[in-house]
Amino acid sequence: xxxxxxxxxAAALLMSMSVSAGNIHFPEExxxxxxxxxxxxxxxxxxxxxxxxxxxxxRLKLKYTDLYELGFDDHEVIESEPFWVDITxxxxxxxxxxxxxxxxxxxxxxxxxxPQVSLKAKGASVAQPLSVISNTQxxxxxxxxxxxxxxxxxxxxxxxxxxxxxxxxxxxxxxxxLEFWWQQATIAERKAFLEKVTxxxxxx
Length: 204
Fold this sequence. Notes:
Blueprint: H1 2-20, E1 22-25, E2 30-35, E3 38-39, E4 50-53, E5 56-69, E6 75-79, E7 83-89, E8 95-98, H2 105-113, E9 118-121, E10 128-129, E11 132-134, H3 135-141, H4 174-184, H5 187-203
Parallel strand pairs: 1-8
Antiparallel strand pairs: 1-4, 2-3, 2-5, 5-6, 5-7, 7-11, 8-9, 9-10
């Protein structure tokens, strides 16, 4: 009799932990790289767009990357240096990481030099601006990159759960593979690829 009761209690605990976890969604221009000391590993053919965290305070490492058309067959990839933001996740809340996307490449370069991002709770009308910490500032401050859990009953942190987009056959689709290799490529490789695709389109 005691064993079924323990199993039931454990199942209830796991369900309560799952319900209280919060999800953060990232737009394609903001790439999550790290949570505290935990590196975010993408699935084989897709980067992570969502992470799930238990309630608490975290320091996230992000990177801004964007693509702008300069002309008919000319593109430019604009990227920032990795930067950090501090966030707090509340019980039973999901969030979006948001920013104001620049209208053109010149403005995007200015943004990349000093990124400004906000955290918006689902259903909220106002987003909370986040203080950005550069790698240089982080090195001078040398803060402990440890996750902190609010006072109260302690809960183990939820694992980061990358969402792996897989098609019906259980294999990554061509667009997913292209996106994965695009994220791995250097700026020069991206530009060369775009030029090749544009030239092939013109020839056909």
